[in-house]
Amino acid sequence: MADGTMGRAPVKGVQVDVAVVGAGFGGLYMVHKAREAGLTVQGFEAGGGVGGTWYWNRSPGARCDIPSLFYSFTWSEDLAREWRWSEKYAPQPEILKYAEHIADRFDLRPSFLFETRVESAVFDEAAGRWTVKTNRGDEVSARWVVMATGCLSVPKTPDIPGADRFKGETYLTGLWPHEGVDFTGKRVAVIGTGSSAIQSIPLIAQQAAQVTVFQRTPNFSLPALNSPLADAEIEGFLEGFTAYRDMLRSGQSIFPSPPPDLRVQGEELEALKAGLWNGMGLMSLSAIPNLMRMPDLNEEICEHVRDRVRQMVRDPEVAERLVPRGYAIGAKRPCVDTNYYDTFNRQNVRLVDLRETPIATLTETGVRTTAGESEFDVIVFATGFDAMTGALLKMDIRGRGGRTLGEAWAEGPKTYLGLMIAGFPNLFTVTGPGSPSVLSNMISSIEQHIDWISGAIGWADGRQVRTLEADAGAQEAWMAHVNEVAQGSLYLDAASWYMGANVPGKPRVFMPYIGEGYKIRIDQVAARDYEGFQTE
Ligand code: N01
Fold first, then answer.
1. Does ligand 1 have an atom closer than 6 angstroms to the CB of 501?
2. Would you state the torsion angle of the CA atoms of residues 50, 52, 54, 59, taken in this order, to the nearest 10 degrees?
3. Atom 24 (ligand 1): residue with closest C-alpha?
4. Which of 169, 244, 478, 488 has the most beta carbons within 10 angstroms of its beta carbon?
């Protein structure tokens, strides 16, 4: 549903304190904080409603891979107490409703222009302001710009020969039709085996006549063991709410901080392995200390998971093809599934291993691999996103001296703390590269960043500071630190989207920050009058 901005006249000549790009969780909270501080704000959103990635990603089975109770904001205790999740892992429609509830509860929609894509943001050095332009002819001048554009919001164009030749139905998981898709009686190809595919394949297979899964790299997946949330679980969470919120605020949580340097073995290791099957998904993996720094330990866990896959899939040849190899568990984002492996025991599901028989081309009627051609009615591209930098680089962002963000990031993204970029004053990134971001609980990291950004704006405004900007030297030192802590980790060995490796031509740089105490560090920077930032 559009939010009433269709057919409107362009907004011109308006000056605001803050421009917010995106009406996902980050953009919604930022608008709330800015208004609470008495600032004028203009939000922009390409979609017809709020929700960001949860507005677009409506493919079957889409749901969060962090338990819902933790996939929640903590900044409003009232909100936490009045919102009720129905399942352990909330489905996409419910997460979207949560975003809509926040928008209504805090009356945030009037601050956004919907169906409006920001095309450029250009910094005027003389005025110390940004000019933001959109595809609807809007031109708004803002002192501050907050890019709440999401880390997984730009679906990758399928880089498959003949991708536009197929004449049947095609869908991208990241841009799913709002009215849904009826697969009944259809022959369906799914290309890709990341989280989006692993969540949707079991449901598509229940409906379609046949499903053929084209797998290039098998993924590690753990069972969600999803279930309705019992009252007692919700009450237990709410009883501990204040302590949980304080733990997040103090930066002492296991998410996003990795576990401490401990060696696990013997019974303790066996218990941690068993824990992978308890339905806590990614949280159970992150409970294994040093998983990403100890190759032997990691391989032991990989083999444990592989054995489980072999037990779940009846045909041993299919099982062997589904078993992930050649990279560490955790180095590509593991999935949390419902009946994924069991789906390959169905008569109507076939697996094509693209490592044995790569796709030669899509044809008008199907997919041709080196082993021959198969016909389909529908192709689902579950081929992923231009992650972390895609949405930012899609816009024409120009900082000091007219330098584009594309030029500044030609060798990969560079930020100070994942929050600001040298040469781009007064512009913030939410969960940007160089922060824990996609390796953390995103909603908690979004909350941390918006709190920090609001604090920085308040501090600068209180001192009549015209511009706040990451110092080039501080940024260089931070990036050196980000790279240093990543060295020796198993993340660097996998061709993952964390590394930009899934997008042809994208610089291969490990983008998230995996050091400890990130939140403590950014709070210290603020407490030291924004150490590492320059002001004018
Ligand atoms: O994308 P992906 P996704 N030919 O990049 C394959 C979040 N998310 O949308 O690995 C053939 O993981 C590609 O193969 P390979 C979550 O953070 C969360 O599934 O490059 N295959 C891979 O198998 C997740 O990690 C949820 O060899 C091609 C797949 O397509 C992130 O979003 C749900 C190909 C892409 O997998 C991205 O997930 C959904 C080609 N040309 C998503 N190009 C939750 O649970 C790509 N592939 C919260």
1. no
2. 110
3. 195
4. 478
32 C-beta neighbours (distance < 10 Å), count: 23
Write out the two tokens for 486: 């990543």
Q: In a mutational test of the pocket of ligand 1, which residue from 175, 283, 502 has the highest number of ligand atoms less than 8 Å from its CB?
A: 502
CA angle 471, 477, 479 (to 5 degrees): 100
- State the residue for tokens 């896959």: 309
pLDDT digits (tens, 9 = 90+) for 211-247: 999 999 999 999 999 999 999 999 999 999 999 999 9
Rounded CA-CA distance 291/285 in Å is 8
Distance from C-alpha of 348 to C-alpha of 205, rounded to nearest angstrom: 7
468-470/169-172 β-pairing? unpaired
Whether a cis peptide bond, with omega within 30° of 0, leads into 256 is: yes
Q: What is the pLDDT of residue 264?
A: 83
Tell me what pLDDT residue 265 has.
Answer: 85
Which domains can be identified in the chain, with CATH numbers?
12-64+88-154+386-535 (3.50.50.60), 169-230+256-381 (no CATH)
> Does 195 sit in the ligand 1 pocket, CB within 6 Å?
yes
Residue 71 · residue 443 · CB < 8 Å: yes
φ and ψ of 212, to 5 deg: -115, 120
Q: pLDDT above 90 covers what percent of the chain?
A: 93
